[in-house]
Amino acid sequence: MLKTVQLATARELAAAGSVFDTLLVGQAGGYAVMFKLGIGERALATKAGATRLFAGLDAAVRVLRRELGINRYQVDASGFSEREEPRRRPDRTAALKQSHEDAAYAEFLREGAAKALADTRAPLSSADAKAHMNDIKARHLAQLDEMMRRKDRKR
């Protein structure tokens, strides 16, 4: 199994001049970044520790140049083949869905607050609000009791 190196560690190694050569290796579905170091070869890793696979050369080069300051590299595209199916990111899908739900809830709260601020009725005291809610509860309980009596009569 190929040993890997996290991006932060690769950044430190590149800054220290410990990266002797960089190779973009084509694989099924993308490119892996390989570093030749004094201690052997290492592949750039994902946060989970697996070999990081870039969908295209542009993405890999962007990380090499912007994140690591590496401007010289070799490309071996002999093993590259296009990905058959589109790349799925279930973690990003769930995060995006959650952010949409959060935005919808925030909008709901803003609308409710705006509606309450625009209400011109006189405010209720705590005692008045409690009495009003007790009246509503009493009406609903009376309706429920009536429905239960009708149901018992039908039996």
Give the beta-strand count.
Answer: 6
- Cα-atom radius of gyration: 32 Å
Element pattern in H and E: EHEEEEHEHH
Largest sheet, in brief, is: 6 strands, mixed
- Stretches with pLDDT under 50, minimum 5 residues: none
Query: Which term fits the overall shape?
Result: elongated
- Arithmetic mean of pLDDT: 90
Alpha-beta classification: alpha/beta
Note the total helix count.
4
The portion of residues forming beta strands comes to 15-25%
Summarize the amount of helix as a percent range. Answer: 40-55%
The rounded distance between the terminal residues' Cα atoms is 74 Å
Protein traits:
155 residues, 4 helices, alpha/beta, single chain
Question: In words, what does this structure look like?
Answer:
This protein is 50% helix and 19% strand. The protein is α/β, with parallel strands linked by helices and 155 residues long. Strands 1, 2, 3, 4, 5 and 6 form a 6-stranded mixed beta sheet that branches. It is elongated and about 85 Å long.
